[in-house]
Design brief:
By secondary structure, the chain is of the alpha/beta class. The chain has helices at 4-42, 63-74, 92-105, 117-127, 142-150; strands at residues 45-53, 85-89, 109-112, 132-138, 165-172, 178-183. β5 and β6 (178-183) form a beta hairpin. The model has no long low-confidence stretch (mean pLDDT 78).
């Protein structure tokens, strides 16, 4: 037989159960709302524009002309399409193209090692998450950088005649990367 104290405890527990279930459900809903706010706030995409540079070409072969064209294309100093950073290989032609553009835009210019394409891609995505980055890649490193950014595996080397392409890779925080190739 139950004593009086146990009878009182049994009577109060069923009464408190709906209250505890309501508080628990509200807590779960609050945590889910926080998760959705975090996903919404961090779901920005990073846009990386990768342009190959042929190290064998000389300045007389049109690199100054190409630098002027890229300055017109990406030279906006304000507004939504403004670049956040420029990465360039350490070849003289990359410096010839990147330095005037970085000076005009007043943005940082970083020089990269041509040997590790994955490290260049990882660095651009890590340092400029949600921004717009221009990478002037060595002609041989170009496919590796685009492949590391987009997840598209292609080993095709570009010929010197084909180096006037632009690959635009949009890398969302959640989901798959998109690749767009333009010829100019």
């Amino acid at each position: 037989m139950l004593s009086m104290n146990s009878r009182v405890n049994l009577q109060h527990r069923p009464f408190l159960t709906p209250i505890w279930l309501t508080v628990g459900a509200a807590g779960v809903a609050f945590l889910f709302a926080l998760f959705l706010i975090w996903v919404w706030g961090t779901a920005g995409s990073t846009t990386v524009i990768v342009i190959p540079v042929d190290p064998k070409l000389t300045a007389a072969a049109g690199e100054e002309e190409r630098a002027a064209l890229l300055a017109r294309m990406f030279g906006g100093t304000e507004g939504p399409g403004r670049l956040d950073a420029i990465y360039a290989s350490s070849t003289p032609n990359s410096r010839l193209i990147a330095a005037p553009l970085a000076a005009r835009l007043r943005i940082p210019l970083s020089y990269t090692a041509e040997s590790d394409a994955k490290a260049v891609a990882r660095r651009a995505l890590h340092e400029h998450r949600g921004g717009r980055v221009l990478i002037l890649a060595h002609l041989d490193a170009f496919p590796g950088i685009v492949g590391a950014l987009s997840g598209v595996a292609y080993d095709a080397k570009l010929d010197a005649e084909e180096y006037r392409v632009i690959d635009i890779v949009t890398v969302p925080r959640i989901g798959h990367a998109n690749l767009l190739r333009l010829n100019y």
